[in-house]
């Protein structure tokens, strides 16, 4: 190269205008389950298209926005599949209605109401069909209309954001394990050995009302989101997820590599993952060492919030009112381990509550209004539906994998004036019914005895008993006959 020549550099990839999205999703049955109860939604709401075909794999963000959802169904036989499919169908249907969102509040309100309606539909379907009693699904949904991504959470599926070489989880598992860790009762490094790590505290369809937890993050150019069911998050650690996603820029390749990694680690559950990359001039470049920062969004308070049996500590609402459970003496999301048949020991509390916002990790000892019932999970090894509700501490039937899935109030303890809310004194409702039935039965038996006694004495004068014949008289009378 001569001194007068200017060094030429290869042009970099052209940055599109607006916000460009490259996305793909994949679901896999895993190695142990016989059928797949997971489902997902990838949709360009502006085009009104939900597909993995090229028109959605690479699309520009339009005025109606885009949405990505992962649902992990439960309930046995086909019930889990029905629950997760109903959830994604309902969310897509509701997010398509009306005019494009007018702003962030409108988008969050629509997303919140769509998830609540999905839960209500599943709940009604489960009540109307005995074979589907107890079915439900987790739901992690991410939506955006501009550079701010909102993630709505119910259950323990997850949403991660990867920026440059850093991975941050922007959702909080609504699980017993998470509460115990936050309360300081279990160390994070011991979480993998916790016996009830698969118990979640909320799911669509298990109650008439649910409460979503909404967080948000402002995207930067080159950011990646990963939304997955616990079939991936429970088998592959976060560092390995980060390495796999950063190892290939194509979401279709990353999705396959992630499901393969979960299967290689055992494939104990269904595996579902969505990978989406964001680019475009509308997104600012990330500053050096700038991590993804997320926060809770002050969402509109859901209708009938007082009837929601599970509340989220430190949650914010747009009306500015304090979050409070239905009964003020019950800590948000309180769970009693002894109601599950787990004997509290030195390292296991008998009652757990969420940590106060001040950072105090003391354990709240107030019991919930009624003992929770452990719902069975899917009977993945057979075709028979799982029981709607097993007794606390009951062991799984042979052939059922991961039976304990959801903590929920039993149907017998639901207040008819407040759907999905435990009735006052509901913990003794079953005992009271048995006592009343026993007393009624005893009264009937006593009446029969008295009636029989009265009937036997009608042939004799009142107050006298027939005299027994002498032995000789009886013999003479028998001979004369």
Jot down its keywords.
eight-stranded antiparallel sheet, 25% helix, 481 residues, disordered C terminus, disordered N terminus, alpha+beta, six-stranded antiparallel sheet, 18% strand
Q: How would you sum up this structure, described in words?
A:
A hairpin with a 2-residue loop joins β9 (158-163) and β10 (166-169). It is elongated and about 105 Å long. The protein starts with 19 loop residues before the first strand and ends with a helix. Strands 2, 3, 5, 6, 7, 8, 11 and 14 form an eight-stranded antiparallel beta sheet that branches. The chain is an alpha+beta fold. The chain is built from nine helices and 16 strands.
Topology, please?
Elements: E1 20-28, E2 38-44, E3 49-50, H1 54-57, E4 58-60, E5 66-74, H2 79-95, H3 104-128, E6 136-137, E7 139-144, E8 148-154, E9 158-163, E10 166-169, H4 176-182, E11 213-218, E12 224-228, H5 230-233, H6 238-246, H7 251-264, E13 271-279, E14 294-296, E15 373-376, E16 404-408, H8 429-456, H9 471-480
Antiparallel strand pairs: 1-4, 1-13, 2-3, 2-5, 5-6, 5-7, 7-8, 8-11, 9-10, 9-12, 11-14, 12-13, 15-16
In a nutshell, what does this entry contain?
The protein is an alpha+beta fold.
Overall body shape: elongated
Count of helix runs: 9
Rg for CA atoms: 31 Å
Helix content: 10-25%
Strand content: 15-25%
Give the overall average pLDDT: 75
Helices and strands: which structural class? alpha+beta
């Amino acid at each position: 190269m001569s001194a007068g020549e200017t060094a030429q550099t290869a042009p970099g990839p052209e940055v599109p205008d607006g916000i460009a999205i490259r996305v793909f999703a994949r679901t896999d049955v895993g190695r142990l389950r016989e059928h797949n109860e997971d489902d997902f939604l990838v949709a360009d709401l502006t085009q009104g298209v939900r597909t993995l075909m090229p028109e959605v794999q690479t699309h520009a963000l339009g005025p109606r926005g885009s949405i990505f959802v992962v649902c992990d169904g439960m309930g046995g036989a086909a019930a889990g599949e029905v629950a997760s499919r109903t959830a994604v169908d309902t969310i897509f249907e509701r997010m398509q209605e009306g005019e494009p969102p007018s702003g962030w509040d409108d988008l969050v309100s629509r997303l919140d109401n769509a998830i609540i309606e999905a839960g209500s539909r599943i709940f009604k379907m489960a009540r109307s069909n005995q074979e589907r009693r107890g079915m439900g699904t987790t739901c992690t949904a991410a939506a955006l209309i501009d550079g701010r991504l909102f993630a709505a959470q119910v259950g323990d599926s997850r949403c991660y954001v990867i920026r440059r070489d850093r991975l941050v989880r922007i959702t909080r598992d609504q699980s017993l394990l998470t509460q115990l860790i936050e309360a300081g009762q279990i160390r994070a490094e011991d979480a993998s050995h916790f016996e009830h790590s698969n118990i979640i505290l909320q799911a669509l369809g298990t109650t008439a009302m649910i409460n979503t937890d909404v967080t948000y993050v402002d995207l930067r150019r080159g950011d990646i989101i990963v939304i997955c069911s616990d079939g991936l998050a429970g088998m592959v650690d976060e560092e390995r997820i980060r390495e796999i996603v950063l190892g290939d820029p194509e979401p279709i390749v990353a999705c396959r590599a992630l499901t393969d990694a979960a299967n290689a680690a055992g494939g104990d559950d269904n595996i579902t993952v969505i990978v989406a990359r964001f680019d475009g001039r509308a997104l600012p470049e990330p500053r050096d060492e700038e991590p993804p920062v997320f926060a809770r969004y002050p969402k509109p308070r859901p209708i009938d919030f007082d009837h929601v049996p599970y509340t989220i500590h430190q949650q914010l609402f747009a009306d500015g009112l304090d979050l409070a459970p239905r009964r003020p003496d019950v800590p948000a999301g309180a769970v009693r381990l002894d109601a599950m048949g787990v004997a509290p020991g030195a390292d296991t509390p008998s009652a757990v509550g969420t940590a106060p916002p001040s950072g105090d990790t003391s354990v709240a000892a107030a019991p919930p209004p009624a003992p929770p019932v452990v719902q069975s999970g899917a009977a993945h090894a057979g075709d028979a539906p799982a029981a709607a509700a097993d007794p606390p501490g009951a062991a799984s039937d042979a052939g059922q994998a991961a039976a304990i899935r959801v903590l929920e109030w039993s149907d017998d303890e639901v207040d008819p004036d407040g759907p999905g809310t435990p009735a006052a004194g509901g913990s003794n409702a079953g005992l009271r019914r048995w006592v009343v039935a026993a007393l009624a039965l005893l009264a009937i038996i006593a009446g029969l005895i008295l009636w029989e006694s009265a009937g036997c004495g009608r042939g004799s004068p009142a107050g006298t008993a027939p005299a027994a014949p002498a032995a000789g008289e009886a013999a003479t009378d028998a001979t004369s006959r």
